Please model this.
Amino acid sequence: MDERLRSELSRQGVVAIKLETLYNWGRKNSLWPLGFGLACCAIEMIAASMARFDLSRFGAEVFRPSPRQADLMIVAGTVTKKMAPQVVRLYNQMPEPKYVIAMGACAISGGPFKQGYNVLKGIDRYLPVDVHIPGCPPKPEAVIQGLMLLQDLIDGQKLTGPGRPRFLKKGEPSDFEVPIEGAHDLVPPYNAAVWRPCKITIDE
Amino acid sequence: MTGSIGHTLQFLTVFLVIAVSFSLIPILLARIWAKAFSPAKPSSRKNAIYECGLESKGDAWIQYQSQYYVYAILFLVFDVESIFLIPFGVAFLELPPGAVVAMLVFVLLLFEGLVWAWMKGVLNWK
Amino acid sequence: MESIEQIKLRIEQAIPGVILEIIANGSPGNPASIRVDPEHALAVARFLKDDGQLRLDYASNVTGVDWPDKVAQQTVKVLKMVDGVEKEFDAKVETREPGFLEAVYHLYSMELKHGPLVLRMRTGDRAGQTHLPSLTPLYRSADFQEREIYDLYGIIFDGHPDLRRLLMWEGFEDHPMRKDYAEPDDYEFEPTAHNQVLAKARRHYPPKASNG
Amino acid sequence: MADIGMESAVGISAAGDGAGPGYRLLAKESPEEEGRFLEISMGPQHPSTHGVFRMDVLLDGETVVRLKPVFGYLHRNHEKIAEGTTYLGSMPYTDRLDYFNSMTNNWAYALAVEKLAGISVPERAEYIRVITAEMTRLQNHATLMGFLLQDLGAMGTPLMYAFREREKILDLFEAVSGSRMMCNYMRFGGCRVDLPSGWLEETVRLVDEFPGFLDEFEALLAENEILMARLQGVGVLSAALAVNAGVTGPMLRASGVNYDIRKVDHYGIYDRFKFRVPLGAHGDCYDRLMLRLLEMRESIKILKQALKQIPSGPVIDPKVKIRNFKPKPGEAYGRIEGPKWELGFYLMSDGSASPYRYRVRPPSLINLTVLEDLCIGQKVADVVVILGSVDIVLGEVDR
Model:
């Protein structure tokens, strides 16, 4: 099915597309985020879904309160060590094709509150993050650009073959270990299966 | 004669088959799709009870108050009543006055039950 | 509002046996504070609240402060016998002042609309005796703030109706706002721009001859 | 003053003596009472709790028997970090305290440091501070009404109107300070930069249009039967309990106590403007909502006067050292009437560049002291509305 034939057919009013494209097109344009604001970034997320910046142009303005009906978790704000088990438990309870957007410097790496004793230095210690939106808080336009980036990511997902996304592979886990609140810190401090710290050598 | 009746019955069965298959095919497709493409991965963490992000403590099988049961019964009674009223409403014009009186008795009987429950104070929450 | 000395005198008359101390405030134009001994704190607070001229019925702010032990190094002349001859040596002597925890109350009056009276209470020391009387029975606004001080500083408020940790999770054991709190070490090196700048600096400047 | 007892009438003692994780509200469940009470937690992730705030509610059917708020899910250690950075270094952190009103947070912190170090502020800076603070009050009250109506069930539509007005004000803040929400605009002794050209005319136009929005909202809200049925008589706060529990701001004035720090402390230049302080009569949720509407009208009056009288001149006191700013040892407590309530900063300095103790008076945390008293006996749906009318922000509750 080369391009010339396809354009010829489309001129006759016949649309020929792959099932994969249709499947991804449908999912990409109806991402339902989980109504789950943590801090200041949540206000910018709400402002992005309001009339002026209008997240509903991308089909993502339905903020579902319960994780069972959401397929996109926007971690908007500082994840504290007291809140981390809840965030991971909510992620576990979401149905399978689910994505995580780490919105704001706090969710990405602890942000301005990095030296806090009760602040988790980034949600990618416990959850696989798909899109990072830097900023403190990122402006609503940045939130929309982050969402469009996620839509491109979904667009490129394969249905078959080794390049399949995580949720289509049998062996890949769909939920992750929930940390427990220990005596001095979260136990375990990070999820080794998910978190890939950057390898450095301290040169003397 | 029977052929024409047999004929209309066949006509009905075709419609029945189409209706049933129209509802079953998407479910079948979804099942095939799940088996072929996205494997199911049930796990205890995923099926945990959702309680605002917290771990749910205690089990849900506790003895409930009888008050809830009374509300449920009253709702059920009036739900069933509305089922009877629907065909009555559809065939209202062709019905003789006797049927209207019968339905009136039926409705008033239930209404009297509600008034009694209200007077007895079952409805307001103690 | 009267001056703080007058208030001190009137409190001493009203409550016999109370130990009051006025602590000056270094910055200009800000009120000095009164330090009360924990035993009479509740009685003093009740007096301040019901007194006709003061009517301090609004505890605006309750703060915990940590004063760690002060270790002062002094050099002292010491006489020592060295093979039969007395010689003077100066030896370093460490004098250790015991630190304490402090609760500071800012009391205002909503009725007479006048300024803050700063009330201070100090605990015995930072480890064993960290008990202070709670003012929550008098000022309900101190309820959550005292729970927060218990959580972050470790002052146990006697008489508080529901003393639990406010901000940290219940299983947490340390008191994080103390000056000597050691954070769990979850340091994560981030290759930021400074890293390249550091490497470039190292290449440019030869390492110092005696890096001891 | 009657000491308001903590135990509720039903005589269920607080089970928790710090009893480990899973603090249970219900002390001991005798067998025959097993199903009587239902303990649920409107937990950290809940559409009604404006952020990560958790309430453990004990229910008898629909009515609330006990309610214990749980905090700490957004405890970001603002005070511990502030003890590590310089005075100016923690100015951007104050934006993130009450992330709806960054201008007034900055002003409160700047006021406290100016009190500590004895710094004077030039005229024009005072006027700019009053103008930006009153505009913050406008957008905060508009957003509050939007969220309260969303709690009542009007999903989204009133919030759209409120955010439309808020966006206009945020554009002006972005023009003057560079960022929509996190302005970081005040400095000790004035403001960072002067107003851009055309900003004042733009603000005058906004202030002239704003009453139109207010009339529109008042027409929608004042005589709306659903609103009156749902809000009147719900969550009544008595004046005595309000004063004793340290409640401040519009919630206190809705109970009839005339205590507005702009009139009590005479900070800034509020004495030059004629404005009135609206007071409520019943102290219920309806009064709190309407009070905010009236306060917006007063803010517009202040803005009109300030915009006419603003002089030209320096925006910051040139004598103030920005680089290594080391105030003399001492302590100071500065507070302002924020859009939500009294926001205070208590600073202790030991002569070094970073504060020895940096304490933020968390007004939303203290206003929540009375949440249990307001909610006992109400229905669960009313708990959501009462929390909405208290108008908390989690960045400030947990700091």
Q: What stands out?
A: The beta strands of chain A are 72-76, 99-103, 131-133, 180-181, 186-187. The domain at 32-155 of chain A is CATH 3.40.50.12280 (Rossmann fold). The longest strand of chain A covers residues 72-76. The mean pLDDT of chain A is 89.
